[in-house]
Design brief:
By secondary structure, the protein is of the alpha+beta class. The chain has 9 helices and 10 strands. A 5-stranded antiparallel beta sheet has the order 1-2-3-5-4, with helices on both faces. Strand 8 and strand 9 form a beta hairpin. The radius of gyration is 19 Å and the shape is globular.
Length: 289
């Protein structure tokens, strides 16, 4: 079975649950508001979610999350997903999948956050706590543990495609500066995709961090991209001051943010065109920060 033949919908989830976890078969199932890009997520009853990889390349993260999240959770200051069950591949769905405890909250849109600076402080403390956890035998994520120069060819391709609508000199200078250094310290834990869609807020405050599919150990620069995707002004400075990262790490963080925004705006294969408007704003923030 190839992944392009897999339709991930309520019918599929109901069939998987009935077959593998029949004690939950009578619970209602419905898609969550933001079902995800790498995975599709569904409500299961009132207190659980079902999370299924949307492609073969995302399937390895299932067992990684199942193993590591229970170990990390007690050491972190905010809730993270708690695995309840591990689903097996079948003849009609070819990858492992997960059932998690449902975490209350809404996606961290700026308008839902009462005080962005307090949110920045809370998130910074979460990331610092994550980085302090013993990283011995932690997982290597090829797409995040790799040096930033791995993405040099497609970044320069995107710059070429966009040459008539961007400041090529400014963008290239920012990118070259990002490539000029690398993480020289012992590997630390990183979430790998700290984005507003992977943060939850409740009563206006940051309440949880979700979606650890990109979890790994290495350079933490990829985790602070949110400085430009959510925070600005005072909240960005609070985030920076709390993390106390060196100048080179911040330069690489800008590189991570720039790479992702450029390839989306250039519509390179595998990117989500629905994110273009947001990505243009990120490029603006990076060039004017």
């Amino acid at each position: 079975m190839t992944h392009d033949k897999v339709l991930i919908d309520v019918f599929l989830v109901r069939k998987l649950i009935a077959q593998q976890f029949p004690h939950w078969a009578d619970l209602p199932i419905k898609p969550v508001e933001h079902g995800g890009w790498d995975n599709r997520t569904f409500h299961l009853g009132e207190s659980m979610t079902v999370r299924l990889p949307s492609d073969e390349e995302y399937a390895p993260s299932v067992k990684k999350e199942q193993y590591w999240l229970p170990k990390l959770a007690p050491l972190l200051p905010l809730p993270i997903p708690a695995p309840l069950a591990l689903g097996k591949p079948t003849e009609y769905y070819p990858w492992p999948w997960s059932v998690y405890k449902w975490i209350e909250g809404q996606t961290a849109l700026a308008e839902r956050i009462t005080d962005l600076s307090k949110c920045a402080l809370s998130l910074a403390h979460f990331l610092l706590s994550l980085q302090k956890i013993d990283a011995t035998n932690g997982p290597v994520n090829p797409s995040r543990s790799c040096p930033l120069k791995t993405y040099d060819p497609e970044t320069r391709e995107a710059i070429t495609i966009l040459k008539d609508v961007i400041d090529v000199h400014a963008v290239t200078t920012l990118w070259d500066t990002a490539l000029a250094s690398s993480w020289q310290r012992p590997a630390v834990w990183f979430h790998g995709d700290v984005a507003p869609t992977n943060l939850l807020v409740k009563d206006g405050k940051l309440s949880a961090v979700i979606d650890f599919g990109s979890l790994g150990i290495g350079d933490p620069a990829c985790d602070v991209v949110i400085a430009w995707t959510l925070f600005k002004g005072e909240s960005r400075e609070v985030f920076r001051d709390t993390l106390q990262l060196d100048t080179d790490t911040w330069a690489r963080a800008r590189g991570w943010a720039l790479w992702k925004a450029l390839i989306i705006c250039a519509e390179l294969p595998g990117t989500n065109s629905l994110e273009k408007e947001k990505s243009w704003k990120i490029i603006y923030e990076l060039l004017h920060d």
